[in-house]
Give the backbone structure.
Amino acid sequence: MITRNVFGTIVGIAFLTMGLSMPSCPGQQAMQQQIDALSSSEKAMTNKIGALEGQIKSLKDDLEQTKTMLGQISKTAMDQTSTLERLDESVKALQTKAAEKPKAAEKAKSATAKKK
């Protein structure tokens, strides 16, 4: 059947094949640990990136809303400025009229006093 040399060669090859295929090598175990650590780190980073993308989207929406509100506030402020300017002109006109009435009354009294 099989000679002793052939049997020894087959057994030797089988042991070598098992030795190479088994993960009992310290370097291979360290490599597997690094791969596992990197895989878990990658998953954590992916989750963090997803959370940051959500925050960025939220901030972008807030920025757009702020821009809209700023435009409305600016328009309202400009409208109020023109209204305040008209009000100031009206107050000045009333002050001028109020200042002219006493002067006219004094002139009328002095004119009446001169006639007497």
